[in-house]
Amino acid sequence: TTLAPMRRWLLLALLTAAATYLLELFDVDAAALFAGLVIAGVLAIAGLAPRPRATSPETPDDPDAPVIPRRYVLAAQGVLGVYIGTIADTDTLSGLGSAWFPVLIIGVGTLALSVAGGALLGLHKQVDPLTGSLALVAGGASGLVVVTRELGGDERMVAVIQYLRVALVTVSIPLVASLVFGQSSAAVTTETPTWTDQAWGLLLLAVCMGVGIPLGRLLHVPAGALLTPMALATIAELTGIAGDAAVSPMLLTIAYAVIGWQAGLGFTLPRLRAIGRVLPFALVLILAIGVGCALLGVLLSWWTGESMYDCYLATTPGGIYAVLAAATAAGGNVAFVVAAQILRVLLMLFVAPFAARAAARYLRRGQE
Questions:
Q1: Helical axes 249-264 vs 155-179, angle rounded to 10°
Q2: Got the DSSP string for 83-138?
Q3: Is 97 left (phi over 0), alpha (psi -120 to 50) or beta?
Q4: 226-242 pLDDT, tens per residue?
Q5: What separation in angstroms does the CA of 50 have from each of 32, 42, 69, 119, 168?
Q6: Helix axis angle, 308-315 relative to 269-304, nearest 10°?
Q7: For residue 271, what is the enclosing H or E element?
Q8: Cα dist. 164→77, 285, 333 in Å?
Q9: pTM exceeding the 0.85 threshold for the entire prediction
């Protein structure tokens, strides 16, 4: 516990890099965020993590004192927001065709199901209403961790429950594909952006973050450092202004790690025990939301005429890489499935903060 500050940061960075590499071998979504969360949490509990700068004698004992300077946290949020915005390209979303309205309505239904489940989680004595509302939102786990902290919730609780959701959905997709639909999954390869695309991506980052972060602060947008750059990047992508610009995978990995560290460095044994007591209840709700989303998939199939299997994949509450692998292996309507999943993620991240805050206010009012 007598490690020098620089050695603590070096230990955190090296262990996170190693854990990220291992998780990426298993195609874990946002591997660096999950690795950063776990490694930072373990080091924090062991007393080996970086500590906040002492501004007063009480600061080192405050688990909520910021360890990472806010400017780096805002930069990481901005990079993540722009990256999410760039996945909404017109070629992908055009895969919805005339089914865009049913998919949008089903997406709203998924959001309502998630927030309802989160409201039930918020009734647990270890969970505040806002944290509960965001912990089970079905989409954009990495963005929701950011949103939770900015809105004043417990991002550690949200991070653990969100990644439990992602893990369960990812594991269940090939099982359901095989046992229910008689399909198999395939490996998914993702193309690395060219250096030229990444250079344009740096320009897109500079513009969207340079304009978006101050604009979000000016307009009092919740989690404005994430959502406003994301909105600008989405507009740039859908209008064609962004062209082939792509966020550098290395920058995105660093951003994920910073967001994971921010949550993980606040872990303490009492907080870990509190999360452990909530997980069984959260697990039941995650499974219930998964079943509800599958039923929404049945409705989507009836509404659009797409196959039951494609609509099941289109409405799964997360695990987009597993969804893509399953859709590709089955030779189904991959464009429809991926477009529906991307629309779901964007809908969740744009609407969920407002819906969760409204639900939290309603729950608090009911408890008074």
A1: 120
A2: HHHHT--HHHHGGGGGGHHHHHHHHHHHHHHHHHHHHHHTTSTTS-HHHHHHHT-S
A3: left
A4: 889 999 999 999 899 99
A5: 18, 12, 12, 35, 32
A6: 150
A7: helix 269-304
A8: 22, 11, 28
A9: no
